[in-house]
Amino acid sequence: MSLMKKLAVATALTAVMFSAPAMAQTKIALVVKSLGNGFFDAANKGAQEAAAELGDVEVIYTGPTTATAEGQIEVINSLIAQNVNAIAISANDPDALVPALKSAQERGITVISWDSGVAAEGRSVHLNPSDTNLIGETIIKLAADYLPEGGDVAILSAASTATNQNAWIEAAKAAMPDKFSEYQPRLRRLW
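^ that's the sequence the OP posted. Answer follows.
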């Protein structure tokens, strides 16, 4: 299991153990942007493996079938009713989820975001899987490497509210003149 996956589960468990009374089994909800996505399926596999290693931890893998904030809010409200100990969420919208997640926190549920962050007031901590600037630089470097004769580059995001992807796009914009000036004649920004 990767260090990042173990760190995410350990962080969630630590937060739960220090904020919730001792229970027979700790229930952590892993809320993804949408079900049926290979990236999130892999995260679930790692979370399940970590839970098995730790024992007395149940990971509830859930999310909407389509990547919407409204779908995630329904899921969050259901998890509040189930009285889970923690919610670890990759947000479809950083701000729209805050009221539902605040409601969860008011009921003693620890909330962390991972991958795609929730606004600070809706969570305890955010786990970023990689350095945003490194991802932005890599996007531009890969585009430049694959376009040796130059060309147009467009960056497509899964959703306009995808916190992480918007941050990567901003970092890519910043990386062009700062780190990859030698590629300037070859790449044209479309954003």
